[in-house]
Amino acid sequence: MQEKLLELKNLKTHFQTERGVVTAVNGVSFTVHSGETVGVVGESGCGKSVTAESILRLLDEKSTRYEGEILYKGKNLLDFSISKMQEIRGNDISMIFQDPMSSLNPVYSVGNQIVESILLHQKCSKKEAYSRAIEMLRLTGIPSPEKRVHEYPHELSGGMRQRVMIAMALSCQPRLLIADEPTTALDVTTQAQILDLINELKLSYNMGTVMITHDLGVVAEVCTRVVVMYLGQVIEEANVEMLFKSPCHPYTRGLLKSIPKLTGDRLEKLHVIEGKVPTLHQVPKGCRFAPRCEFASQKCIEQMPELIEEESGHKVRCWHFKEIIGTGEGHYVNTSS
Ligand SMILES: Nc1ncnc2c1ncn2[C@@H]1O[C@H](COP(=O)(O)OP(=O)(O)OP(=O)(O)O)[C@@H](O)[C@H]1O
């Protein structure tokens, strides 16, 4: 049985803004075990990054208020002091971001930055940290790491920089990795290599991973479970096979239909979910997706549906999902091939 590493329980993240308080994450719950990759998906503005940043409490403490629980190995991170949180970051839980340039310091060599991160979290000599930095660069597939360790971020390609970020994030062997769109800025070949790398490292360290992405291709590639978010809420959660084969929520079905599909030698016209995610100042009263949903009824407009467990491990937040599944459009992508 794999260890339960992270458990979000009814997490809410509120921001104080000039126009009042907004709630970017609204009652999110999910669990990550060791050795598991949980994908968090949704369009831009659904609250994926705020969820990720809330886990590590990276948001400005003055204008942010959290509710609920963020349990890491059973302890609520929201009760931790700032210095205790600093110990957790990088040591137990690491994060990688979409743009490595924003996290790497341009004036230090990549080796120096990895060494600093190791020395910050582990008791070892500078020499040992340096050897470990080279070993991590080698592990992440950087050729001639003994030479590259002296280079500066601008001397490396985008893919190499992302590998350096991963090397840095994993240098202290965290139990949990949070990856926020780690491959979005990369070309498809490099993207595939980085995803393979994250998969391999997850297996060798038995690490739990939260993969934030808007790309369902990435989900199919690396995730075991998927949490679909819409306007700050979880609207569906399932294991990856279930989600791709029998999506229940109209939003998830829309996202899956918008994956390009090749039928014979013809590329099918892409499905588009009409409208866009509203701002946090215009949250609908009932189901948040209702204004964009082709199946919405008066009940959807007036009452918010709860997230219910439709079958073991498959949760959905929709008043009409049973009728919608009954339309026979259940099977989207064959994940078994
Ligand atoms: N500091 C903040 N103050 C107020 N609102 C914020 C703040 N940070 C994020 N938001 C709002 O929270 C909502 C969720 O943002 P978030 O960045 O989590 O979305 P996302 O799903 O990760 O999208 P993307 O893929 O574009 O990053 C958005 O409406 C955003 O404008």
Automatic annotation (TrEMBL):
Gene Ontology molecular-function annotations: ATP binding
Signal sequence segment: none
Predominant place of localization: membrane
TM region positions: none
Keyword ATP-binding applies: yes
Gene3D superfamilies referenced in this protein's UniProt entry, alphabetically: P-loop containing nucleotide triphosphate hydrolases
Ranges of residues in domain ABC transporter: 6-256
Pfam short name (any one): ABC_tran
Keywords (A to Z) from UniProt: ATP-binding, Cell membrane, Membrane, Nucleotide-binding, Transport
Compartment list: Cell membrane
Bilayer topology term: Peripheral membrane protein
Family listed: Belongs to the ABC transporter superfamily.
Name of the protein: Peptide ABC transporter ATP-binding protein
Gene: oppD_2
